[in-house]
Design brief:
Strand content: 5-15%
Shape: globular
Order of helices and strands: HHHEHEHEHEEHEHEHEHHH
CATH architecture of the largest domain: 3-Layer(aba) Sandwich
Largest sheet: 5 strands, mixed
InterPro entries: DRTGG, P-loop_NTPase, Phos_Acetyltrans/Butyryltrans, Ser_kin/Pase_Hpr-like_N_sf
Radius of gyration: 24 Å
Pfam family, one: AAA_26
Protein name: DRTGG domain-containing protein
Distance between the termini: 26 Å
CATH class of the largest domain: Alpha Beta
Organism: marine sediment metagenome
Number of strands: 8
Structural class: alpha/beta
């Protein structure tokens, strides 16, 4: 079921729960055919979907699924969130297979791993794994920035799979901005700031031998630089994107972009597999399933 804009409003005014249930069960049967195991990804906490009578907890019960709760790193907040979700699932008679704590900062990993396990054990919950935070998994690629935010890729665009490690708004004079340029940074600047664009190209050429690369340039205001400038960016192999909004709005959109792992993200997929193998007890999970 695709929850598009206006869906919940239409449902409240004229509910059609039976049809939604039919669609969910039909889709599940099609996916589960000839499969030993089906992983159903929930959308947020256990109560999401309550507005149209099909919360994650209700759907889990409907499909006869056990649940693994995944919570972000920490101690107090994750335990509070897990217990709240546990109550909603238990209200529907859904069994919990265990808990996974995700995105734990490396510098706090040992402490969180020890304390959160003890805290949840007191609550009768088994921790299947505690996974450290990997920054690369939260970094968008230039292609994702372009596709998700509908920024136009100019013909010179190259290295679209480059990851963005840092977002920099280019507003100061070029000689000052140079102090802030760094490897894999995405620079957002108005399209008529040709002085800054040239500074980025110069930085790229100067640092190329050391392996540093500018992730890309986003030109705000829908302003396209002169052809000669675009050609220089192309020769430097820096991705160039064109956005219609003002610089602040564009920077905010990029900052708020939710990064999702795509099938073609082979490097990220390999990291995730490694994390699961090293930090999640699959044998215990299998026993609980």
């Amino acid at each position: 079921i695709a929850i598009e804009k206006g869906f919940t409003k239409r449902y409240i005014l004229k509910s059609n729960k039976k049809e939604l249930v039919r669609q969910i069960k039909s889709s599940f049967r099609a996916v589960a055919k000839d499969k030993d195991l089906v992983v159903i990804e929930g959308t947020g906490h256990a109560g999401v979907g309550s507005v149209f009578d099909l919360s994650n907890a209700v759907v889990a019960k409907m499909l006869g699924s056990k649940v693994v709760i995944v919570s972000s790193g920490g101690i107090g907040r994750p335990i509070d969130q897990i217990m709240l979700n546990k109550a909603l699932f238990e209200k529907e008679g859904v069994r919990l297979a265990g808990v996974i704590i995700n995105k734990v900062r490396p510098e706090k990993y040992e402490q969180v791993n020890e304390i959160v396990r003890k805290g949840l054990k007191r609550k009768g919950l088994e921790v299947l794994g505690v996974i450290p935070y990997k920054e690369l998994l939260s970094e968008p690629t230039i292609r994702q920035v372009s596709e998700e935010l509908n920024f136009k890729l100019l013909p010179c665009a190259a290295n679209l799979e480059a990851n963005v490690d840092k977002i920099l708004v280019g507003a100061m004079a070029p000689h000052n901005a140079l102090n802030y340029f760094s490897d894999r940074c995405l620079i957002i600047t108005p399209g008529d700031r040709e002085d800054l664009i040239l500074a980025v190209v110069g930085f790229q050429r100067d640092k190329a031998k050391s392996g540093l690369r500018i992730a890309g340039i986003v030109l705000s205001g829908g302003i396209r630089p002169r052809k000669g400038i675009v050609d220089l960016v192309k020769r430097a192999k820096i991705p160039l994107l064109l956005a219609e909004g003002d610089t602040y709005s564009v920077a905010s959109e990029v900052h708020d972009l939710k990064v999702k792992i795509r099938p073609e993200d082979s490097k990220k997929t390999a990291i995730i597999k490694d994390l699961i193998e090293n930090y999640v007890d699959i044998d215990i999970l299998r026993r609980h399933l």
